[in-house]
Amino acid sequence: MDAGKKKINDILNGNRQLVIPFFQRSYVWKEDLWERFIESMELVSQTGKEYFLGSVILKQLPTSTSSTVDDVRTVINCR
User: What pLDDT was estimated at residue 46?
Assistant: First the structure.
């Protein structure tokens, strides 16, 4: 486990794919929350300001050697 303070760019790495399981999308990730989150991330990206995202727990998934994505992680928790 690698815990610590990270920048959003470390999580949204260029060749990383985040997978949000159905049970997360169904109960937690409502459209209005997604819109607010994306708007916040765009603002952070444009201004370079800090943004406290909270705890993000990701689980690395296996990838095949033929995959175009090097790193696939499922979102376990995001608060």
Answer: 85
Domain of 21, in residue numbers: 8-78
* Residue (of 27, 22, 24, 26) closest to 56 by Cα position: 24
Structure tokens at 30: 């409502």
- 10 Å Cβ neighbour count for 63? 13
21/57 Cα distance (integer angstroms): 13
The count of domains in the chain is 1
Residue-wise pLDDT tens digits, 33-55: 878 888 888 888 788 888 787 78
Q: Which of 2, 60, 52, 57 is CA-nearest to residue 24?
A: 57
